[in-house]
Design goal:
single chain; alpha/beta; Rossmann fold; 8 strands
């Protein structure tokens, strides 16, 4: 009889940890100088991610929204822009909006897998550049990654993996 509560607690712990997301953020280069708080920051909306021939519509908007939310703690204003073809185009668009910095993310991996039955994790990877608009100097660049737990019970998607690693990267800039 006393073993039943212990088994129940053990199973509950397994179920709760299996549903949690694992996130990893690894910076490729530390900021050459910390960004100034209270400025305007331009965030480029990246092209939507794809995997195995499937295009994930809205994934680019999810990425720019994650950066907008994370940056709003540090900036006076965060302006989310359209897709830009090159860094120079992104900097020109940011300059037009009178922003001090441009955040230029690119989705390099976006895998929405059926983890609940396959055990294959959802994955999200971004390459991000931070550019000072005034002179076009690259302030930092990073790979931002996230992957789901190996056992989930549905509901996980790559966009659910964005918040923690994006916030961690953004906080490293200030």
């Amino acid at each position: 009889m006393k073993i039943l509560p212990a088994i129940t607690a053990f199973l509950a712990a397994i179920f709760l940890t299996a549903c949690q997301t694992t996130t990893v953020e690894s910076a490729s280069s530390a900021p050459t100088k910390k960004l100034t708080r209270g400025t305007s920051i331009y965030v480029v909306t990246p092209a939507d991610g794809s995997y195995g021939g499937k295009q994930y519509t809205g994934s680019g908007v999810a990425v720019s929204s994650a950066f907008e939310a994370a940056l709003s703690r540090y900036a006076d204003s965060v302006i989310v822009g359209e897709r830009q073809g090159s860094t120079a185009e992104a900097v020109a668009a940011a300059k037009e909006k009178k922003c001090a910095y441009a955040i230029i993310p690119k989705i390099t991996r976006w895998e929405d897998r059926a983890t609940e039955w396959s055990g294959i994790r959802d994955k999200m990877e971004l390459f991000v550049k931070v550019v000072r608009v005034e002179d076009g100097a690259e302030m930092a660049s990073a790979e931002v990654k996230g992957k789901s737990a190996w056992a989930t019970f549905g509901g996980d998607h790559p966009e659910d993996l964005l918040k923690a690693p994006v916030q961690e990267f953004v906080s490293s800039l200030f």
